[in-house]
Design goal:
Blueprint (H helix, E strand, L loop, with lengths): L5 H9 L19 H4 L3 H4 L8 E9 L2 E9 H5 L8 H15 L1 H4 E2 L6 E9 L26 E10 L7 E4 L1 H4 L5 E8 L2 E8 L4 E3 L1
Parallel strand pairs: 1-7
Antiparallel strand pairs: 1-2, 2-5, 3-6, 4-5, 6-9, 7-8
């Protein structure tokens, strides 16, 4: 699949002309580059490393649906350092298995006919981390101190993208420490943003 954060380029391309540059009123955002993006969820969330929160970006380009998720590892497993015990290693393995099941994490309308094509995970402490390319641009470093983060990318191919009007996020069921998700989406129809919670986990597209 495209490297993690390739969805950022798609996201910017689908925004109205100048919208991305006006994000903060100071021109193009520096984190919209692979080098800055590879720092993980802290950058995607505007430089704030906040436990219990995640950032979700969804881009529909024709029949290709690209989804990216970024969050501190603490939100998923309760710690951000390298696993030190058997229980912590097991927690990482359980989280990784759950994150790789993109079809279960994202509820999509059956009418859209979407099939999961690829999954990519990047984090400093995963047992089996995906690298997007030979240069390892997608590799997420541990960062400052113990602020370990995870970035996950998902690619779906949808036979009838016109029927893709919503996404049901099931992350809250898998990760009880997750409190909220800042979601952004873009497609040829437009773009939008929403805050998703356990009680409101449906993202209208």
């Amino acid at each position: 699949m495209p490297p993690p954060f390739a969805v950022l380029a798609l996201f910017a391309a689908l925004l109205p002309s100048g919208a991305a540059a006006q994000h903060d009123g100071h021109g193009p955002h520096p984190e919209h580059t692979p080098q800055r993006a590879a720092a993980g969820a802290g950058v995607m969330a505007g430089g704030v490393h906040e436990h219990g929160l995640a950032v979700l970006r969804v881009v529909l380009d024709g029949g290709a649906l690209e989804i990216e998720l970024a969050t501190p590892l603490d939100t998923l497993v309760g710690f951000e350092h390298a696993p030190r015990t058997a229980a912590q290693r097991a927690a990482l393995q359980v989280a990784e298995r759950g994150l790789r099941d993109g079809a279960a994490l994202f509820g999509l309308p059956e009418a859209a006919g979407c099939a999961l094509m690829a999954v990519s995970l990047a984090s400093p402490w995963l047992q089996s981390e995906d690298r997007a390319d030979a240069g390892g641009a997608a590799h997420v470093q541990a960062g400052d101190g113990d602020h370990g983060e995870l970035v996950a990318g998902y690619r779906f191919q949808c036979a009838r993208p016109q029927a893709l009007d919503a996404l049901q996020l099931r992350l809250f069921e898998l990760f009880p420490r997750l409190r909220a998700v800042r979601a952004e989406w873009a497609s040829a129809r437009g773009q939008g943003a929403a805050k998703l919670t356990r009680g409101q986990a449906r993202l209208a597209l």
